[in-house]
Design a protein that fits this description.
With 257 residues, the protein is α/β, with parallel strands linked by helices. It folds into 2 domains: 7-45 and 182-256, HAD superfamily/HAD-like (Rossmann fold, 3-Layer(aba) Sandwich), CATH 3.40.50; 84-179, HAD superfamily/HAD-like (Rossmann fold), CATH 3.40.50. 33% of the residues lie in helices and 20% in strands. The protein is built from 8 helices and 15 strands. It has helices spanning 26-35, 51-60, 73-84, 96-104, 127-138, 162-173, 185-194, 209-218, and strands at residues 7-11, 17-18, 21-22, 40-44, 70-72, 89-93, 108-109, 116-119, 142-145, 151-152, 159-160, 178-179, 202-206, 222-226, 245-247. Helix 2 links the parallel strand 4 and strand 5 (70-72). Helix 3 crosses helix 7 (185-194) and helix 5 crosses helix 6 (162-173). It is globular and about 55 Å long.
């Protein structure tokens, strides 16, 4: 598959940065996109941070990315809810990335009979908040999650993340959530709409076969797997689907912009 690529979507961790440091070719790739005025978005399932926060973190790694070029699972979730129930209400468990996105989408944050319980990622999940979510869902609130990731990274090792806490709430309520973030192609479609791009002329760069690549395929995008993150070369053939291309790193794609 060698369709002309006019716009780009790319994952962040494992593609552009690793543990706060830019990966080889990342700065050159972002620079090439901006110089060529190619529409692009950086996609992340991380719902903790706002685009402004992430811009600052990327800048600290030497990557100059505008806020408008960052699309998080929190933003995609807020957009989804605004389309479903405009001006609705939600009980949100998460950090500023989620609550700010919901507020800016016109949502009221409340514990009193909300339309939705929205679960995102936080480093301080509380038993009280989870109990409140269980009771609201049992009372009729619809259950939405920003992403299905069951663990998140920390300096000390993996932490329970959104998917793991969602499983606990599901066990208590019998209600399955709807996950908006990767690998749901919904996140990719909202990203394409944001930059006014078409799937036929857009590529997705990712380091995970089970999220970035499969979602890109299902959204009809050309896909590039980089080997600087989660998926290793010998693991590619274990999946029943394949990326359009496999490259060593994003440095190999600078000339494709």
């Amino acid at each position: 598959m060698n369709r002309e690529i006019r716009s780009w979507l790319t994952d962040m961790d494992g593609v552009l940065v690793h543990e706060g440091h830019a990966l080889p070719g990342a700065a050159e790739f972002i620079g090439a996109l901006r110089a060529a005025e190619r529409p692009f978005l950086i996609l992340t399932n991380n719902s903790i941070f706002t685009p402004r926060d992430l811009r600052a973190r990327l800048a600290a790694a030497g990557l100059d990315v505008p806020e408008s070029s960052i699309w998080t699972s929190a933003l995609a979730t807020a957009q989804f809810l605004a389309d479903q129930v405009p001006g609705g209400s939600a009980y949100a468990i998460g950090e500023a990335g989620l609550t700010t996105a919901l507020y800016e989408a016109g949502y009221t944050l409340t514990e009193s009979a909300p339309d939705y319980v929205v679960l995102g990622e936080t480093r301080t999940y509380s038993f009280e908040a989870i109990t409140k979510a269980v009771r609201l869902i049992a009372g009729g609130a619809r259950f939405i999650c920003t992403n299905p990731d069951v663990t998140g990274p920390s300096a000390e090792g993996d932490l329970p993340a959104t998917g793991a806490v969602a499983a606990m709430i599901t066990a208590a309520t019998g209600r399955q959530p709807y996950f908006v973030g990767k690998p749901n192609p919904m996140m990719f479609r909202s990203a394409l709409n944001r930059i006014d791009a078409h799937s036929e002329s857009t590529a997705m760069i990712g380091d995970r076969m089970d999220t970035d690549i499969v979602a890109g395929i299902e959204a009809g995008l050309q896909t590039f797997l980089v080997l600087t993150g989660s998926t290793k070369p010998h693991e590619v053939d274990r999946f029943p689907f394949r990326p359009s291309h496999v490259v060593d790193s994003i440095a190999d794609l600078v000339s494709r912009v």
